[in-house]
Amino acid sequence: MRLPVLTFDIETLTDLKSGAHLHGLDLPEADLESALAKLRRQESGTDFQRLPLHEIVCISGLWLDENGLKLFSFSREQYSEAEILRRFFSIFDKRNPTLVSWNGSQFDLPVILFRAMYHGLSAVSLFDQGEIDTQKRYNNYQNRYHQRHVDVMDVMAMFNGRNFLKLDDAAHLLGFPGKRGDGAYRVPEYVREQQWQKLTSYCEGDVLNTWLIYLRFQLLKGQILPADHQHLIQSTIQYLYTQPQQAAFLSVWRETSKQTDFTQFDFPSSPN
């Protein structure tokens, strides 16, 4: 496994201002969201908005390097959308991590690309495909079959959309916590009511589930040995004991780990 590794996830809301501009709507803000949802249903049969209309309210990540693990979040509690993106891009300016996501190729990275362009930002280290760094011609963050960005959902499906799984389902099947409720549907509520810890905790939970599935996939491929896999699992557990906002994740993980033979002994009887 090539270090550093950055597992990430984003949370979004509908960009009402851009949506009104796109569709030529002159409505009070309170009516815009339902109007945009209705237009989208007529257009595609789903409420899920076009990617450029997803305004980013949080980016969370789990960083692993030679010094260990670090969980972090950039949210609208402290930063504008543009500043969230700048801070995320700065990571790639300093290092070129292996990027890990769940459905990041089809959702997270395209949304990040559109929103960065909307704000007039540059993200050379993330979006260069060899024009500047010739090595990225052969291994960049956009190519589906390269290793610099591993979309775990995509690679586990063997790049076949018929085999895609939801993160929640994959995590539960492998003995991990999954999404733990309806948090994705409550993101607008979290933002509206300024429940920032609930927002970041939820986003970080998706990151952690993705990280744990990625470790299992690396074990499958022989990129890490069984002893290394167990060490990283235990390191993650011990690290999360120091992260109070993830107490619920740990509690659920302790129970779900009992559901498979492979994970049933992941948790010691008491934290060290």
From TrEMBL:
Domain annotation Predicted 3'-5' exonuclease PolB-like: ranges: 46-253
InterPro entries tied to this protein: 3'-5'_exonuclease_PolB-like (IPR019288), RNaseH-like_sf (IPR012337), RNaseH_sf (IPR036397)
Keyword check for Hydrolase: yes
Superkingdom of the organism of origin: Bacteria
A Pfam cross-reference name: DNA_pol_B_exo2
Keywords, in A-Z order: Exonuclease, Hydrolase, Nuclease
Keyword Cell inner membrane: no
GO molecular function: exonuclease activity; nucleic acid binding
Cited CDD domains: DNA_polB_like1_exo
Protein's recorded name: 3'-5' exonuclease
Species annotation: Acinetobacter tianfuensis
